[in-house]
TrEMBL record:
UniProt keyword Membrane, yes or no: no
Region (Disordered): 405-447, 476-504
Annotated organism of origin: Cercocebus atys
Classification via PANTHER family: PROTEIN REGULATOR OF CYTOKINESIS 1, PROTEIN REGULATOR OF CYTOKINESIS 1 PRC1-RELATED
Gene expressing this chain: PRC1
GO molecular function: microtubule binding
Official protein name in the record: Protein regulator of cytokinesis 1
Amino acid sequence: MRRSEVLAEESIVCLQKALNHLREIWELIGIPEDQRLQRTEVVKKHIKEEGETTILQLEKDLRTQVELMRKQKKERKQELKLLQEQDQELCEILCMPRYDIDSASVPSLEELNQFRQHVTTLRETKASRREEFVSIKRQIILCMEELDHTPDTSFERDVVCEDEDAFCLSLENIATLQKLLRQLEMRKSQNEAVCEGLRAQIRELWDRLQIPEEEREAVATIMSGSKAKVRKALQLEVDRLEELKMQNMKKVIEAIRVELVQYWDQCFYSQEQRQAFAPFYAEDYTENLLQLHDAEIVQLKNYYEVHKELFEGVQKWEETWRLFLEFERKASDPNRFTNRGGNLLKEEKQRAKLQKMLPKLEEELKARIELWEQEHSKAFMVNGQKFMEYVAEQWEMHRLEKERAKQERQLKNKKQTETEMLYGSAPRTPSKRRGLAPNTPGKARKLNTTTMSNATANSSIRPIFGGTIYHSPVSRLPPSGSKPVAASTCSGKKTPRTGRHGANKENLELNGSILSARTFKGFQI
């Protein structure tokens, strides 16, 4: 074989070895198959170059590529190590398993990218859980301080006493942390409720025992807050007041009775319902009597709270009804026309508004009461009767009252008319009106004289008593041309009465002349 052929074969073998070595490197650094094909095509192009690259140049190029790949391998391994360290640290804090990746092989760019995203997610999870941990820890410390509670479990000590960075932010620990906070908040709420109950007892006992204001102010510091020392001080104050209550039994029972009356009024108790509580009228002020009163006031309070909305609705109707009656009274007052400043118009508008409002309130209450009666299977009573019956009774009483007032006015007008027919009307000051010229006295006298002149001498008047006819004693007019002789003067003054002031109907019948010179509705007879 020729030497040239030998060299060609050796070149082919070297080239094959170089390509095999390249494939091993590509496999080692994790270059995917598609990129291997591209790189092989590049090598092929180099071999087919027109410049007929020598074997030495080809070796140089291949060595350059190898160095570049080794550098990439080193960088990827370093990044992989750094990501693994970060992953380990985050997973220890979050109590999560480590990211699964082969440490021996060189990671591909895609694998590194996925690993980076995983580490970023862990960092975000850590930040979120840490923020939640810090917030819950702060609330737990406040609750423990409020309850005077000292951490007594290892978990509580880890939360409150240890460094925040050392706390494991696992989902389990976060859940346990939340549970601990709920327990403490429940204890705090219960403690606050107990303290408020003690304060309510203290205020109630203060009112019943009529404790002076300066003595109340002395314990003002414990009337807020719910710490253990505050609760203890409140309990001591309740005990002291309870002992004082036993020493002032009569005073306390009378105070409870005043409160009972207030609740009876708020619950619209009838007289029979109030009398049913016999201890209210007992005078033997014993501890047993006090207990009976306490039990009754508790029962009434509960009854009022359960039906508070209904009672408030009835109370609103009562207030509206009273206001309506007040406007009705003003509307029937004859002196309202002397009103100035437009109040009369305002009152009339308000009265009309209330008159429309009342039926709406009644319908709303009726619907609510019917629903309540269906739920409780009993009637809702107001002052001992059903509410709608009570409402109907109030309207009927109002109608009867208006009818009675109307009849009284009619009777008064009738009596006034009778009096004017018998004794004449009292002189009234004429009201001044715009646009009306004043009357001339001379014309008025002439009109009266003419009217009376045309009257028949034997004219008569039938009074409203009926029956008897009284003849006017006015004389007949003289012949034409003579001056008429007036039976009375036209000066406007009344002729003095003869006899007693209290002359009755019988006197008038016996002496008809007394009727002369009297006035009857503005005309002289």
